[in-house]
Amino acid sequence: MGAKTQPARGMRDFLPGDVRRREYVIRVVKEVYERYGFEPLETPAVENIETLMGKYGEEGNQLIFKILKRGVHETTGEADLALRYDLTVPLARVVAEYRAQLPKFFKRYQIQPVWRADRPARGRFREFYQCDVDVLGSRSMIVEAELCGAASDVLMKLGFNEFTIRLNHRQVLTGLLEAAGIPSEKHNDALVVLDKLDKISQAGVIEELNRRGIVTTDEMLEILFIKAQDKSLAEVESQTEQGVNWTDYNTNLLMRLRERIGNNAQGSLGLYDLSKIVDLTKASLAGPHVQIDTSLARGLSYYTGAIMEINVPDLAGSLGGGGRYDNLVGMFLGQDVPACGFSLGLERIIVLMTEREMFPAALTVSTADVMLTIWDEDSMSDSLALAGQLRGAGLRVDLYPEADKIGKQLKYASAQKIPFVIVMGADESARGLVSLKEMSSGEQQTVSLELIAETIRERLKGRE
Known about the structure:
Layout: H1 16-35, E1 39-40, E2 46-48, H2 49-52, H3 57-62, E3 66-68, E4 79-83, H4 88-98, E5 106-115, E6 127-136, H5 142-158, E7 164-169, H6 170-179, H7 187-194, H8 197-211, H9 218-224, H10 233-237, H11 247-261, H12 265-281, E8 290-292, E9 306-311, E10 320-324, H13 330-333, E11 339-345, H14 346-355, E12 370-372, H15 380-392, E13 397-399, H16 406-415, E14 420-423, H17 426-430, E15 433-438, E16 444-448, H18 452-463
Parallel strand pairs: 1-5, 7-8, 12-13, 12-14
Antiparallel strand pairs: 2-4, 3-4, 5-6, 6-11, 7-9, 9-10, 10-11, 14-15, 15-16
Helix pairs in contact: 1-5, 1-14, 5-12, 6-12, 7-8, 11-12
């Protein structure tokens, strides 16, 4: 029996079609982010383990891929390095390291793989790309509005028109937890559980809260799962054919939250931020998609303010999320730097776009404009020279590598979806001519070597 050829569980190989789809999405993301003034950044795949540990909360720490010490220290079983868990903590480290070299407002985007020792599932992998966009140096709520606008812009460019940006605030959650009578020492436990709502349902949340020693009551649950009254969630979501607009729902929910939170200082500050963000996003592409959702918790412990998550119909889980983390850089720098970011899940976007056939048809077309055949062993040099000539003229050229039967070479070009094939026989070559065959129609013409590049370009334009 041969060795296993499948990749490690939760990891994947990417064939040419997969790579083209990935590159298409990344290209759209980069173009949008750069239009919003963000600059690129890259960080190492491996971080010192102390850089990552303690930044992601109870469950996050368990999902970090640790790297054992090497060489003479291998037998200790201890880890000193770890694979990057996300792009946010490495960003905070970079800002602390290069603070003097960075602008007052550092706007960066980063598109790189991260690793998590999670249980693989549909659209969830152990190695996956994140598309992060962050702003550091400002506490203004316009940052949150811009991030929501940029994420919305990306999704709309990719063809997603029905999506919701769920919005909440960590200080609002603190106010609700206190109003619900949950002791402060149990707040982290409650947030971890609430963050699982879309995975384990409301009944599952209640069961786990009780298991963690948070005894639930009807009054507590009414506060934790608060909804707007004058327009139900079902009524709003039924508007999807016309496009959801959450304005009335958000206005009513903010009013109810003020009633519940009362004079709680943290909760009131969070509500002010929340209402400001909702108001500012009305001027951006995100406006119609923003929905305040008090069940949104996002379990990462470094969030300090607004938190966001993007959902689309018929998909369990989110397409991305983020929030404000004003204290994270301070863990490395010794002084707090305001920060807020958003991350799009590239893998889930690609899976969903593939399933829904949202990619442009052109992505399935060959990366070559024309293929050159090899007539015989003696003509190989001539074919190589012509391939170089055509490439120099800006065409994408595939050269069949063997002196095979012309029928087999044409069959290969057809299977690769190459639109044109050049056949250069001995007699034609002697007269400075080649035969150009269009594969879709079977039409064939004789063209001089001097005009072949221009002829192919013109024929390609006619196919657009």
